[in-house]
Amino acid sequence: MMKRNLIYVLAAIAMASCQDKRFSVSCTMPEDANVADSTWCYICSYESGTRDKAYTDSAQMIGGKVTIEGEIDGSVLRRFEVGYKTRNYANFILEAGDITIDIEKRTSKGTILNDKLADFLAWAEDTDGKAMAEYEKIQKDASLSSDDKQEQSDLLWSDYSRTTIEYAHNIVAENKGNGLGQYIFWQGIAYNEFITPERYKQELKSAGEFIANYKPVTAITKRFEALEQTQPGADYVDFTIEHGNIDNTSVKLSDYVGKGKIILVDMWASWCGPCRRAMPYIRNVYEKYAGDKFDVVSIAVWDERQSSIEAIPQLGMTWNQIVEAESIPTELYGVNGIPHLMLIGADGKILARGLSETALELWVSSEIKKLE
Protein backbone atom coordinates (compact mmCIF):
# COMPACT_ATOMS: atom_id res chain seq x y z
CA MET A 1 0.00 0.00 0.00
CA MET A 2 2.82 2.40 0.89
CA LYS A 3 4.50 1.71 -2.45
CA ARG A 4 1.28 2.52 -4.34
CA ASN A 5 0.83 5.73 -2.34
CA LEU A 6 4.41 6.71 -3.12
CA ILE A 7 3.70 6.26 -6.83
CA TYR A 8 0.68 8.53 -6.54
CA VAL A 9 2.71 11.15 -4.70
CA LEU A 10 5.48 11.07 -7.30
CA ALA A 11 2.93 11.32 -10.11
CA ALA A 12 1.29 14.30 -8.42
CA ILE A 13 4.66 16.01 -8.03
CA ALA A 14 5.50 15.37 -11.68
CA MET A 15 2.11 16.75 -12.78
CA ALA A 16 2.57 19.86 -10.64
CA SER A 17 6.06 20.33 -12.08
CA CYS A 18 4.68 20.20 -15.64
CA GLN A 19 1.97 22.70 -14.74
CA ASP A 20 4.60 25.03 -13.30
CA LYS A 21 6.38 25.00 -16.67
CA ARG A 22 3.28 25.35 -18.86
CA PHE A 23 2.73 28.54 -20.84
CA SER A 24 0.11 29.83 -23.22
CA VAL A 25 0.50 32.93 -25.39
CA SER A 26 -2.80 34.23 -26.75
CA CYS A 27 -3.69 37.08 -29.10
CA THR A 28 -7.02 38.35 -30.45
CA MET A 29 -6.83 40.60 -33.46
CA PRO A 30 -8.84 43.86 -33.53
CA GLU A 31 -12.00 43.74 -35.64
CA ASP A 32 -10.62 46.24 -38.17
CA ALA A 33 -7.30 44.43 -38.56
CA ASN A 34 -6.60 43.41 -42.13
CA VAL A 35 -5.18 39.97 -41.31
CA ALA A 36 -6.22 36.77 -43.07
CA ASP A 37 -7.81 34.14 -40.83
CA SER A 38 -5.24 31.48 -41.72
CA THR A 39 -2.24 33.71 -40.98
CA TRP A 40 0.60 32.03 -39.11
CA CYS A 41 1.72 33.62 -35.87
CA TYR A 42 5.17 33.11 -34.41
CA ILE A 43 7.14 33.32 -31.22
CA CYS A 44 10.55 34.57 -32.27
CA SER A 45 13.93 34.47 -30.56
CA TYR A 46 16.52 37.23 -30.64
CA GLU A 47 19.31 34.79 -29.78
CA SER A 48 21.10 35.30 -33.10
CA GLY A 49 21.30 39.07 -32.62
CA THR A 50 19.29 42.26 -32.65
CA ARG A 51 18.04 42.27 -36.26
CA ASP A 52 17.95 38.59 -37.19
CA LYS A 53 15.02 36.73 -35.66
CA ALA A 54 14.35 32.99 -35.73
CA TYR A 55 10.99 31.56 -34.67
CA THR A 56 10.72 28.89 -31.95
CA ASP A 57 6.94 28.21 -31.92
CA SER A 58 4.03 28.90 -34.26
CA ALA A 59 0.29 28.44 -34.75
CA GLN A 60 -2.37 29.56 -37.23
CA MET A 61 -4.95 32.21 -36.45
CA ILE A 62 -8.53 30.94 -36.43
CA GLY A 63 -11.49 33.27 -36.07
CA GLY A 64 -9.16 36.18 -35.39
CA LYS A 65 -7.62 34.40 -32.41
CA VAL A 66 -4.49 32.35 -31.81
CA THR A 67 -2.95 30.55 -28.85
CA ILE A 68 0.51 29.01 -28.72
CA GLU A 69 1.21 26.59 -25.87
CA GLY A 70 4.26 24.82 -24.52
CA GLU A 71 6.59 24.45 -21.56
CA ILE A 72 9.52 26.52 -20.35
CA ASP A 73 12.02 26.61 -17.51
CA GLY A 74 12.66 30.10 -16.22
CA SER A 75 12.00 33.07 -18.48
CA VAL A 76 13.41 34.69 -21.60
CA LEU A 77 12.65 37.65 -23.84
CA ARG A 78 10.68 36.78 -26.96
CA ARG A 79 8.80 38.52 -29.79
CA PHE A 80 5.27 37.62 -30.87
CA GLU A 81 4.56 38.25 -34.56
CA VAL A 82 1.38 38.05 -36.62
CA GLY A 83 2.90 36.95 -39.92
CA TYR A 84 6.64 36.39 -40.09
CA LYS A 85 8.91 39.46 -39.88
CA THR A 86 6.09 42.00 -39.99
CA ARG A 87 5.24 45.20 -38.13
CA ASN A 88 2.44 43.41 -36.23
CA TYR A 89 4.49 42.40 -33.22
CA ALA A 90 4.97 42.75 -29.48
CA ASN A 91 7.96 41.95 -27.31
CA PHE A 92 7.08 39.90 -24.23
CA ILE A 93 8.58 37.71 -21.53
CA LEU A 94 8.07 34.01 -22.19
CA GLU A 95 7.50 32.35 -18.80
CA ALA A 96 5.11 29.88 -17.23
CA GLY A 97 1.51 31.09 -17.08
CA ASP A 98 -1.17 32.51 -19.34
CA ILE A 99 0.13 35.47 -21.35
CA THR A 100 -2.11 37.79 -23.37
CA ILE A 101 -0.70 39.87 -26.21
CA ASP A 102 -2.22 43.22 -27.18
CA ILE A 103 -0.92 43.61 -30.72
CA GLU A 104 -2.26 47.17 -31.11
CA LYS A 105 -0.49 48.48 -28.01
CA ARG A 106 2.44 46.06 -28.43
CA THR A 107 2.13 45.02 -24.81
CA SER A 108 1.67 41.80 -22.85
CA LYS A 109 0.06 40.90 -19.52
CA GLY A 110 -1.08 37.99 -17.38
CA THR A 111 2.11 36.91 -15.63
CA ILE A 112 4.32 38.62 -13.05
CA LEU A 113 7.13 39.63 -15.41
CA ASN A 114 4.84 40.64 -18.27
CA ASP A 115 2.83 42.88 -15.97
CA LYS A 116 6.08 44.49 -14.80
CA LEU A 117 7.15 44.92 -18.43
CA ALA A 118 3.83 46.65 -19.20
CA ASP A 119 4.43 48.99 -16.25
CA PHE A 120 7.88 49.88 -17.58
CA LEU A 121 6.58 50.55 -21.09
CA ALA A 122 3.82 52.77 -19.71
CA TRP A 123 6.36 54.71 -17.65
CA ALA A 124 8.70 55.05 -20.66
CA GLU A 125 5.88 56.29 -22.91
CA ASP A 126 4.77 58.86 -20.32
CA THR A 127 8.34 60.06 -19.69
CA ASP A 128 9.09 60.27 -23.40
CA GLY A 129 5.90 62.22 -24.02
CA LYS A 130 6.76 64.77 -21.34
CA ALA A 131 10.29 65.17 -22.73
CA MET A 132 9.00 65.68 -26.27
CA ALA A 133 6.47 68.27 -25.07
CA GLU A 134 9.25 70.17 -23.31
CA TYR A 135 11.46 69.93 -26.41
CA GLU A 136 8.70 71.36 -28.63
CA LYS A 137 8.18 74.15 -26.12
CA ILE A 138 11.88 75.06 -26.36
CA GLN A 139 11.80 75.02 -30.17
CA LYS A 140 8.75 77.30 -30.30
CA ASP A 141 10.19 79.83 -27.85
CA ALA A 142 10.80 82.90 -30.04
CA SER A 143 12.82 84.59 -27.29
CA LEU A 144 15.58 81.98 -27.59
CA SER A 145 18.40 82.11 -30.12
CA SER A 146 19.36 79.02 -32.12
CA ASP A 147 22.33 78.44 -29.82
CA ASP A 148 20.14 78.81 -26.73
CA LYS A 149 17.63 76.32 -28.13
CA GLN A 150 20.42 73.85 -28.83
CA GLU A 151 21.90 74.26 -25.36
CA GLN A 152 18.56 73.84 -23.59
CA SER A 153 17.65 70.86 -25.79
CA ASP A 154 20.97 69.17 -25.01
CA LEU A 155 20.37 69.67 -21.28
CA LEU A 156 16.83 68.33 -21.61
CA TRP A 157 17.87 65.14 -23.40
CA SER A 158 20.81 64.64 -21.05
CA ASP A 159 18.46 64.80 -18.06
CA TYR A 160 15.94 62.52 -19.82
CA SER A 161 18.69 60.00 -20.54
CA ARG A 162 19.95 60.01 -16.96
CA THR A 163 16.44 59.55 -15.58
CA THR A 164 15.71 56.64 -17.93
CA ILE A 165 18.99 54.86 -17.21
CA GLU A 166 18.56 55.19 -13.45
CA TYR A 167 14.97 53.90 -13.60
CA ALA A 168 16.03 50.96 -15.78
CA HIS A 169 19.07 50.26 -13.58
CA ASN A 170 16.86 49.70 -10.55
CA ILE A 171 14.63 47.25 -12.44
CA VAL A 172 17.62 45.32 -13.81
CA ALA A 173 19.11 45.08 -10.31
CA GLU A 174 16.01 43.16 -9.21
CA ASN A 175 15.79 40.98 -12.36
CA LYS A 176 19.35 39.96 -13.23
CA GLY A 177 18.44 36.35 -13.97
CA ASN A 178 15.26 36.64 -16.01
CA GLY A 179 13.79 37.85 -19.29
CA LEU A 180 12.58 41.15 -17.86
CA GLY A 181 16.14 42.06 -16.91
CA GLN A 182 17.25 41.17 -20.44
CA TYR A 183 14.68 43.46 -22.02
CA ILE A 184 15.11 46.42 -19.68
CA PHE A 185 18.90 46.36 -19.99
CA TRP A 186 18.76 45.97 -23.76
CA GLN A 187 16.13 48.61 -24.51
CA GLY A 188 16.28 50.87 -21.46
CA ILE A 189 20.04 51.09 -20.96
CA ALA A 190 22.06 49.74 -23.89
CA TYR A 191 19.89 51.41 -26.54
CA ASN A 192 19.79 54.72 -24.71
CA GLU A 193 20.90 57.25 -27.30
CA PHE A 194 22.93 59.30 -24.83
CA ILE A 195 24.70 56.62 -22.79
CA THR A 196 28.49 56.87 -22.88
CA PRO A 197 30.82 53.88 -23.37
CA GLU A 198 32.09 54.39 -19.82
CA ARG A 199 28.59 54.31 -18.31
CA TYR A 200 27.71 51.30 -20.47
CA LYS A 201 30.66 49.36 -19.07
CA GLN A 202 29.53 50.14 -15.53
CA GLU A 203 25.97 49.05 -16.22
CA LEU A 204 27.09 45.88 -18.02
CA LYS A 205 29.27 44.82 -15.08
CA SER A 206 26.44 45.52 -12.65
CA ALA A 207 23.90 43.55 -14.72
CA GLY A 208 25.66 40.19 -14.33
CA GLU A 209 26.55 37.35 -16.68
CA PHE A 210 23.02 36.21 -17.58
CA ILE A 211 22.30 39.58 -19.16
CA ALA A 212 25.84 40.28 -20.40
CA ASN A 213 25.86 36.98 -22.34
CA TYR A 214 22.48 37.60 -24.00
CA LYS A 215 23.16 37.77 -27.75
CA PRO A 216 21.55 41.17 -28.44
CA VAL A 217 23.53 42.58 -25.52
CA THR A 218 26.82 41.08 -26.70
CA ALA A 219 26.14 42.67 -30.11
CA ILE A 220 25.73 46.06 -28.44
CA THR A 221 28.88 45.49 -26.38
CA LYS A 222 30.78 45.03 -29.64
CA ARG A 223 29.20 48.25 -30.92
CA PHE A 224 30.47 50.17 -27.92
CA GLU A 225 33.94 48.72 -28.47
CA ALA A 226 33.78 49.94 -32.08
CA LEU A 227 32.51 53.31 -30.90
CA GLU A 228 35.49 53.71 -28.55
CA GLN A 229 37.90 52.88 -31.37
CA THR A 230 36.40 55.48 -33.74
CA GLN A 231 36.15 58.52 -31.52
CA PRO A 232 37.33 61.95 -32.77
CA GLY A 233 41.09 61.89 -33.21
CA ALA A 234 41.19 58.28 -34.42
CA ASP A 235 41.86 57.24 -38.02
CA TYR A 236 38.76 56.45 -40.06
CA VAL A 237 37.99 52.77 -40.65
CA ASP A 238 37.73 51.77 -44.30
CA PHE A 239 35.20 49.30 -45.69
CA THR A 240 34.04 47.92 -49.03
CA ILE A 241 30.44 47.60 -50.27
CA GLU A 242 30.35 45.06 -53.07
CA HIS A 243 27.50 46.67 -55.05
CA GLY A 244 27.55 50.04 -53.31
CA ASN A 245 27.65 52.31 -56.34
CA ILE A 246 24.41 53.20 -58.10
CA ASP A 247 25.70 51.36 -61.19
CA ASN A 248 26.09 48.21 -59.06
CA THR A 249 29.89 48.33 -58.95
CA SER A 250 32.03 47.99 -55.83
CA VAL A 251 32.94 51.04 -53.74
CA LYS A 252 35.14 51.78 -50.72
CA LEU A 253 34.89 54.59 -48.21
CA SER A 254 38.52 55.33 -49.08
CA ASP A 255 37.37 56.23 -52.61
CA TYR A 256 36.25 59.50 -50.97
CA VAL A 257 38.03 59.79 -47.62
CA GLY A 258 41.71 60.52 -46.98
CA LYS A 259 42.30 62.26 -50.29
CA GLY A 260 42.96 65.78 -49.05
CA LYS A 261 39.34 66.88 -48.58
CA ILE A 262 37.19 67.22 -45.48
CA ILE A 263 34.37 64.71 -45.92
CA LEU A 264 30.94 64.79 -44.34
CA VAL A 265 29.72 61.19 -43.98
CA ASP A 266 25.95 60.83 -43.68
CA MET A 267 24.54 57.43 -42.65
CA TRP A 268 20.83 57.36 -43.52
CA ALA A 269 17.88 55.27 -44.75
CA SER A 270 14.92 56.06 -46.98
CA TRP A 271 12.39 55.05 -44.29
CA CYS A 272 14.00 57.25 -41.61
CA GLY A 273 12.03 60.45 -40.96
CA PRO A 274 14.85 62.29 -39.13
CA CYS A 275 17.22 61.36 -41.98
CA ARG A 276 14.89 62.97 -44.50
CA ARG A 277 14.54 66.09 -42.34
CA ALA A 278 18.33 66.40 -42.18
CA MET A 279 18.75 66.48 -45.97
CA PRO A 280 18.08 70.23 -46.47
CA TYR A 281 20.86 71.01 -43.97
CA ILE A 282 23.26 68.64 -45.74
CA ARG A 283 22.29 70.08 -49.12
CA ASN A 284 22.93 73.58 -47.80
CA VAL A 285 26.52 72.84 -46.71
CA TYR A 286 27.18 70.87 -49.89
CA GLU A 287 26.02 73.65 -52.19
CA LYS A 288 27.85 76.25 -50.13
CA TYR A 289 31.21 74.56 -49.53
CA ALA A 290 31.73 71.62 -51.95
CA GLY A 291 34.96 71.97 -53.89
CA ASP A 292 38.64 71.18 -53.53
CA LYS A 293 38.46 71.29 -49.72
CA PHE A 294 35.10 69.69 -48.91
CA ASP A 295 32.72 67.00 -50.14
CA VAL A 296 29.82 64.84 -48.93
CA VAL A 297 29.08 61.12 -49.15
CA SER A 298 25.79 59.62 -47.99
CA ILE A 299 25.72 55.93 -47.05
CA ALA A 300 22.38 54.10 -47.09
CA VAL A 301 22.27 51.61 -44.19
CA TRP A 302 19.57 49.19 -42.98
CA ASP A 303 17.64 49.82 -46.20
CA GLU A 304 16.52 48.13 -49.39
CA ARG A 305 18.69 49.06 -52.39
CA GLN A 306 15.80 50.14 -54.61
CA SER A 307 14.17 52.18 -51.85
CA SER A 308 17.42 54.11 -51.36
CA ILE A 309 17.89 54.69 -55.08
CA GLU A 310 14.35 56.01 -55.48
CA ALA A 311 14.67 58.34 -52.49
CA ILE A 312 17.96 59.94 -53.60
CA PRO A 313 16.51 62.16 -56.36
CA GLN A 314 13.31 62.77 -54.37
CA LEU A 315 15.38 64.28 -51.55
CA GLY A 316 17.67 66.27 -53.86
CA MET A 317 20.78 64.32 -52.83
CA THR A 318 23.08 65.46 -55.64
CA TRP A 319 26.31 64.45 -53.89
CA ASN A 320 28.21 61.13 -53.65
CA GLN A 321 26.19 58.05 -52.72
CA ILE A 322 26.88 54.57 -51.36
CA VAL A 323 23.86 52.24 -51.24
CA GLU A 324 23.12 48.73 -49.96
CA ALA A 325 25.64 49.14 -47.14
CA GLU A 326 23.34 47.25 -44.74
CA SER A 327 24.97 47.17 -41.27
CA ILE A 328 28.63 47.12 -42.35
CA PRO A 329 29.38 50.82 -41.59
CA THR A 330 27.20 50.94 -38.48
CA GLU A 331 28.95 47.96 -36.92
CA LEU A 332 32.43 49.29 -37.73
CA TYR A 333 31.65 52.71 -36.27
CA GLY A 334 29.38 51.60 -33.43
CA VAL A 335 26.37 53.52 -34.73
CA ASN A 336 23.15 53.00 -32.80
CA GLY A 337 20.74 55.29 -34.64
CA ILE A 338 20.43 57.32 -37.81
CA PRO A 339 20.96 59.83 -39.20
CA HIS A 340 24.56 59.68 -38.06
CA LEU A 341 26.64 62.60 -39.29
CA MET A 342 30.41 62.30 -39.08
CA LEU A 343 33.09 64.73 -40.23
CA ILE A 344 36.43 63.28 -41.36
CA GLY A 345 39.48 65.48 -41.90
CA ALA A 346 41.64 65.83 -44.99
CA ASP A 347 44.19 63.52 -43.37
CA GLY A 348 41.64 60.79 -42.63
CA LYS A 349 41.32 61.59 -38.92
CA ILE A 350 37.81 61.67 -37.47
CA LEU A 351 37.01 65.25 -36.49
CA ALA A 352 33.52 64.87 -35.03
CA ARG A 353 30.63 62.42 -34.99
CA GLY A 354 27.00 62.40 -33.97
CA LEU A 355 26.65 65.96 -35.25
CA SER A 356 23.25 67.63 -35.21
CA GLU A 357 22.12 68.97 -38.59
CA THR A 358 21.90 72.48 -37.14
CA ALA A 359 25.58 72.37 -36.17
CA LEU A 360 26.80 71.17 -39.58
CA GLU A 361 27.59 74.51 -41.21
CA LEU A 362 29.49 75.81 -38.18
CA TRP A 363 31.65 72.68 -38.08
CA VAL A 364 32.28 72.58 -41.83
CA SER A 365 33.13 76.27 -42.19
CA SER A 366 35.42 76.13 -39.16
CA GLU A 367 37.37 73.11 -40.42
CA ILE A 368 37.70 74.53 -43.94
CA LYS A 369 39.23 77.72 -42.52
CA LYS A 370 41.89 75.58 -40.83
CA LEU A 371 43.01 74.35 -44.25
CA GLU A 372 43.36 77.83 -45.69
Topology:
Layout: H1 2-21, E1 22-28, E2 40-45, E3 54-60, E4 65-71, E5 75-82, E6 89-95, E7 97-102, E8 107-109, H2 112-140, H3 146-174, H4 179-190, H5 197-207, H6 209-212, H7 215-229, E9 240-241, E10 251-252, E11 262-268, H8 273-289, E12 294-300, H9 305-314, E13 320-322, H10 328-333, E14 340-344, E15 350-353, H11 360-371
Parallel strand pairs: 1-7, 11-12, 12-13
Antiparallel strand pairs: 1-4, 2-3, 2-5, 5-6, 7-8, 9-10, 11-14, 14-15
How does this structure look, described?
It contains 11 helices and 15 strands. The protein has a 5-stranded mixed beta sheet. The chain has a 4-stranded mixed beta sheet with strand order 4-1-7-8.
Q: CA-to-CA gap between the ends?
A: 100 Å
Largest sheet: 5 strands, mixed
Structural class: alpha+beta
Mean of the pLDDT scores? 90
User: Which spans of ≥5 residues are poorly predicted at pLDDT below 50?
Assistant: 9-18
- If strands are numbered along the chain, what order do they take across the biggest sheet? 13-12-11-14-15
Indicate the proportion of strand residues: 15-25%
What is the β-strand count? 15
Identify the overall geometry: globular
Give the count of helical stretches. Answer: 11
| Helix proportion range | 40-55%
Question: Could you state the order of secondary-structure elements as H and E?
Answer: HEEEEEEEEHHHHHHEEEHEHEHEEH
Q: Measured on Cα atoms, how large is the radius of gyration?
A: 25 Å
